[in-house]
Design a protein that fits this description.
Blueprint: E1 4-8, H1 12-23, E2 28-32, H2 38-53, E3 59-62, E4 73-76, H3 92-109, E5 114-117, H4 122-133, E6 140-142, H5 145-160, E7 167-168, E8 171-172, E9 180-181, E10 187-188, E11 191-192, H6 199-210, H7 212-220, H8 227-241, E12 246-255, E13 261-272, E14 275-279, H9 286-303
Parallel strand pairs: 1-2, 1-4, 2-3, 4-5, 5-6
Antiparallel strand pairs: 7-10, 8-9, 10-11, 12-13, 13-14
Length: 308
């Protein structure tokens, strides 16, 4: 039986993710958007690319939710994007109502689905989806750490002039200004970057990783990043649909891990067909734990603003 992934929001992130999913032959895709003709047009355009690119997966575009029924994975990208000068925190009130409504629609039609939340502010919107859906924590995840780590990996490779394939990066915490990149756990071919780069260069990479999203926003001047976020979504979708048991940094709902409870926070997790299989709890140095505490406090402050 063919697998199904529904993507709510047919904007740049949603459509780019849809393209990558069918190109990798992972699943059929349903794209939902409130703009009449937008998801239908993008789905038709991608279907017409199938004979050239050689994939048999099918895309459906719709303005309603019925076609999403019995989805294996639902990706929620709906919401207003950040604009120059706008922080993720500014989006809380505006995007809460959108994510709440979307979650109600998809959870009713796909009660066994795994939800991947992309909407910002990420950690707060994942919290919204969890509470509104009533799903167990294993089936609600936020896409953040994969993207943040990918950005850090690129900056490391660029600084050292090495292949991306040789790099690994480790980023914890909330998806925002308080995220916690960990140089001690970031490596090139297994060698910690602390052995390869000066403190000044590492500090610059850490700061650029934190500013990765807004750097793109400021360059585009209209809209926000979508290629890297879409690729990051697809890596999570692939780990789930192919039951890879892959360890990826994701926003997960913690129940005591790292000393936090009832909070979404970016941590390394193992992903498989059931969603979250386990949280990888690592030992942090005092300064790293203090930084993570600050990030967790910032996320909790946002969550407390949600009318749940």
């Amino acid at each position: 039986m063919r697998r199904k992934v529904s993507i709510i929001g047919a904007g740049n992130v949603g459509a780019s993710a849809a393209e990558r999913i069918v190109m990798r032959r992972l699943a059929d895709v349903v794209m939902v958007d409130i703009v009449e003709g937008l998801p239908q047009g993008k789905a038709l355009d991608l279907n017409e690319a199938a004979p050239v690119d050689g994939f048999d997966m099918h895309l459906t575009g719709t303005n309603g939710y019925d076609a999403t029924g019995k989805s294996d994975v639902v990706v929620i990208t709906s919401g207003l994007p950040r604009k120059p000068g706008m922080t993720r925190d500014d989006l809380v009130a505006k995007n809460f109502a959108i994510v709440k409504s979307v979650t109600e629609e998809v959870a009713r039609r796909s009660p066994d689905a795994i939800l991947i939340v992309v909407s910002n502010p990420l950690d707060a919107m994942a919290h919204t989806a969890l509470k509104v859906s009533g799903f167990p924590r294993e089936r609600v995840l936020g896409m953040a750490g994969v993207l943040d780590s990918a950005r850090m990996r690129f900056f490391i490779a660029e600084a050292l002039g090495v292949s991306i394939e040789n790099t690994h990066a480790f980023v914890l915490g909330g998806h925002g200004d308080t995220m916690v990149p960990l140089p001690r756990y970031s490596t090139v071919a297994g060698i910690p970057i602390t052995e390869l780069l000066s403190k000044e260069k590492i500090d610059a990479i850490v700061q650029r990783t934190r500013d990765g999203g807004i750097e793109v926003v400021n360059l585009l001047k209209s809209g926000s990043a979508y290629y890297a976020p879409a690729s990051s979504v697809v890596q999570m979708v692939e780990a789930i649909l192919l039951d890879q048991h892959r360890i990826l940094p994701c926003a997960a709902y913690l129940k005591g891990e790292y000393g936090y409870r009832d909070l979404f926070l970016g941590v390394p997790v193992q992903l498989g067909e059931r969603g979250l299989e386990k949280v990888i709890d690592i030992t942090l140095m005092p300064d790293e734990k203090a930084a993570l505490d600050r990030s967790a406090a910032a996320v909790r402050e946002l969550v407390e603003k949600l009318p749940l």
